[in-house]
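Sat 14:20. Reprocessing the chain from the morning session after the first attempt stalled halfway. Input below, unchanged.
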Amino acid sequence: MTPVKRRDFIVMIKFGTGGFRGIIGDDFIRSNLEMIALAMVQLLKQKHEEKSPVVIGYDRRFLSDLSARWIACVFAAAGIEVHLISHDAPTPMIMYQVKQENACFGLAITASHNPAEYNGVKVFTKGGQDASRPVTDEIEAQMAKLRPSEIKTLDYEEALSSGLIKEIDPQNDYIDSILKIIDTAAIKKGNLKILLDPMFGVSRTTLQTILLTCRCNVDVMHDRHDPLFGGRLPSPSIKTLGHLSQRVVQDKYDLGIATDGDADRIGLIDQNGAFIHPNDILVLLYYYLHEFKGWKGAVVRNVATTHCLDRMAGSFGEQCHEVPVGFKYISSEMEETDALIGGESSGGLAVRGHIHGKDGIYAGALLIEMRSVMKKSFSETLENIHGKYGSFVMHETDFHMTPKHKEKLLSFLFEDRALPAFPWKIDRISYLDGCKVYFKNGGWVICRFSGTEPLLRIYGEMDHAVDASKACRIFQDFLSLQ
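Finished this time. Tokens:
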């Protein structure tokens, strides 16, 4: 076998809060992916970890399967063994396999919930957790030192026959790992009727198998392979789950569950068709795990996630830890504090005792267990929780940013530290991630740039919807955003 050198190219790679993501044909191109792989090869050699296998998986996006092979062949050309999952796979399954093999690195070819024109690469480190900022900084720094002529690749079939690339299928082990944790007996007694919406992504086989094993009645929608995701954003939100909501009510399901494109985020529809906000999913699970399963521990949330968790943790005699946006920060803080649960308002969450990252499939199984044990709708349980801890209503707005406009606002917000006048007394201001204003009444508003898309996001949480919306509007008008 003779490694083949690749042609010259322009490198345009930056890792954000959820790995590298780019537009297909623009910065998501073969040569850039091979550059990432070569940088990781160099790091493995520097760390003397070149005997550690690299685990690679991919989702159903356009070019994901081919991209996984392109990357694998760069590792193989350097003599590093690759364990490539033989079919499209949920990101949490890839993370699980990295943990199981104690691999130094793992990669998922996915752009998660981004629009269909995007694809990307998520990097995982030992233990199966998202690569920390220092690790992705190392990869970027290594790429800057490399020359195009240094990239070499092997033919895929040759690498496969030589054993440098091995195709694996950890699906059954991953499913079994979840079945061992959840209360399957309680779910069997619940006899729930469930509608699953993978959003044209990768969760069907794994989550449906888990639910069928627990004797649930399961139907599936939007499960065909469609790289355009049915023309919708593959992100489970109130804007994208209207059809799921209608079907749940129309056909009298006990609940509807949706997962994003790579199945690390979850969406939930109650039996009455109500969308359960990801903030409330976190609140529900923390309440259930602590009060019903007796699992103790703190909670970790990012800066844009509900403060109901703070109040609930306080009542449990536990702490709530706030971190920047990016699940790597949640995972790291959970590990450091031995927290019970951690999550974000976009639908990603992790629970102690499973993988060190978000898993929409495990979260779905836990929610079904909760529904079976408590024998109440999620809306009823939330009503009781908010009756005890208070009302927390969030408003969210997004604004598309050009590079020029972003640069201007970055200077205005974070160098000049300009702020609008608010009608509520300010308790404190944080620049941990974006600009977050905490009010003395317990509410807050934050303005921050997305780390995965060219967007400025403004979130506000108050006791009442009108005030949450007003807080966001004040910031929007102050920045002259339309």
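The longest helix spans residues 30-46.
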